[in-house]
Specification:
The chain has about 475 residues and is α/β, with parallel strands linked by helices. It folds into 2 domains: about 1-150, 2-Layer Sandwich (Alpha-D-Glucose-1,6-Bisphosphate, Chain A, domain 4), CATH 3.30.530; about 160-455, Rossmann fold (3-Layer(aba) Sandwich), CATH 3.40.50.720. Helices cover about 35% and strands about 25% of the residues. It is built from 14 helices and 20 strands. Helix 4 (about 170-180) packs across helix 9, helix 5 (about 235-260) runs parallel beside helix 6 and helix 10 (about 390-400) runs parallel beside helix 14. The mean pLDDT is about 95.
Length: about 475
């Protein structure tokens, strides 16, 4: 039987750390971002509670059946494999108080591989390395989340509507907000069995089913993330119209529809993009910088203007989050880049001299909550890392983290030939944006450095 004992210092009481693990979303928060592990079913954290987990496998998925035992609320719990990839697996989580406001989490794992001891010779080192990377990731996420929620135990916002709740950011944000104690109502174009979901195609003026909003309770805030993917299709005239409708017209419809339902949120946060600045070379861009030229600049200006109507319609505090490239291996730009870079086929885009603003997905989640709860934050907000990089630096850093070469550049003419106008505005333009408004409002980025952020989210850290 192999053993692994790891521990992490936590900036909260042991009882608070234990309670964090009781949320349904805790497993997914702790699951490595670089793997497609997901919870299929759970009975919750209780004695005898069972769970079924889908694990990535060479072909399809592998189901892991587990059971909780030795559950002592506030102090410890264990889980064991009933069916899965190991011959035996037991994991004890023990929460130890070390002061009035700090604690230690001990992870004690006992495991045995199938066909042991023969498998130990050929695969033992690999499994040990995978477990080390997994717990390094889990501990960093856990300590960051607990430090963040520990500082926001008192909240002014209670009930939030999240549009685009099934998108990459919306899905993660919805789970994160619920874990923090908020009541969250999702909005989706598709029908849902969930009682906490509104069905509404925002290109239509009225929702198909707004039952979740018609219970007489007030709505405190809206986080409006819905919008067709900007890079999903080539920018034909028709596609540009679709992109505008899914942002500008959808925002008008959302505000008008909520007013018709008799709802008046106090905070209205809407997505926007750093594309509003256009191609600006080496210029440092803050929220006070003027808009730039091009389709994205015009689209973002119209989108923000539509969102600002919430100020007059609801007397709401209106915030427009100018997002940059959001990095996570679970989707978006980074997920599309990874296959080429893992095979050593990555490279700079064009000259590589253009500045690239970026932000880690976890910092997006933290920043949105910070914005919801900070009254002084209003208007445009650059949601970007305080350390932008050039495309060449990004390319070298990603290749270095993956321990691969990056020697196959994509010439500008080839990108323009393949993507047309989209290449100029998404891949070759230069935007050196910094988060002046967030920093002035006291927000602390947990993943400001690109190299450290990529190592964390791609599982390259070891205990």
């Amino acid at each position: 039987m192999r053993e692994l004992h790891t521990w992490v210092s936590l900036p909260v009481k042991a009882e608070f750390a234990y309670a964090w693990h009781e949320h349904d979303s805790a497993f997914n928060r702790l699951s490595p971002a670089w793997e497609s592990t997901r919870m299929l079913r759970t009975d919750g954290l209780r004695e005898g509670g069972r769970a079924v987990i889908a694990l990535p496998a060479p072909v399809g998925t592998l189901k892991w059946h587990a059971e909780h035992f030795n559950v002592v609320p506030g102090k410890e719990f264990s889980d064991r494999q009933l069916q899965g990839p190991f011959k035996c697996w037991r994991h004890r989580h023990e929460f130890e108080a070390i002061s009035e406001q700090n604690s230690l989490l001990h992870d004690r794992v006992q495991y045995e591989l199938p066909l042991s001891p023969l498998s130990d010779i050929f695969a033992g080192w690999f499994v040990r390395q995978k477990l080390s990377a997994m717990f390094a990731y889990r501990h960093k996420v856990l300590s960051n989340d607990l430090a963040f929620w520990g500082a926001w135990q008192e909240k002014t916002v209670k009930r939030i509507l999240v549009t685009g709740s099934r998108g990459l950011i919306g899905r993660e944000l919805t789970a994160f907000l619920r874990q923090g104690g908020y009541e969250v109502i999702g909005l989706s174009r598709e029908a849902s069995d969930s009682a906490n979901t509104v069905q509404w195609n925002l290109t239509e003026s009225r929702p198909t089913n707004a039952g979740a909003l018609q219970d007489g309770k007030p709505l405190d805030a809206v986080v409006h993330l819905a919008g067709e993917g900007i890079a999903e299709k080539r920018w034909t005239s028709k596609q540009k119209e679709n992109l505008a409708r899914s942002r500008v017209e959808a925002t008008h419809n959302l505000i008008a529809g909520l007013k018709e339902l008799g709802l008046s949120p106090k905070v209205f946060i809407s997505a926007s993009g750093v594309g509003i600045y256009g191609d600006r070379g080496d210029e440092i861009l803050t929220e006070s910088s003027s808009p730039g030229e091009g389709f994205l600049g015009e689209l973002a200006c119209a989108w923000e203007k539509a969102a600002q109507q919430s100020e007059s319609v609801f007397s709401a505090r209106s915030v427009q989050l100018r997002m940059s490239t959001v990095l996570t291996p679970r989707g978006g730009a980074l997920a599309k880049m990874l296959p080429a870079f893992k095979f050593g086929a990555g490279g700079r885009l064009g000259s590589g001299k253009q500045w690239m603003s970026w932000v880690a997905l976890d910092d997006v989640l933290y920043a949105i909550v910070h914005t919801l709860e900070t009254e002084s934050i209003r208007g445009a907000v650059n949601l970007v890392s305080p350390q932008p990089v050039t495309n060449l630096e990004f390319t070298k850093t990603l290749a270095n983290v993956l321990n691969r070469p990056a020697v196959l550049p994509a010439p500008a003419f080839a990108l323009k030939l393949a993507l047309g106008e989209m290449a100029n505005e998404l891949l070759l333009c230069s935007q050196r944006a910094i988060p002046e408004a967030l920093c002035k409002a006291g927000f602390e980025f947990r993943h400001a450095d690109l190299h450290a952020a990529l190592k964390h989210m791609l599982g390259k850290n070891q205990l």
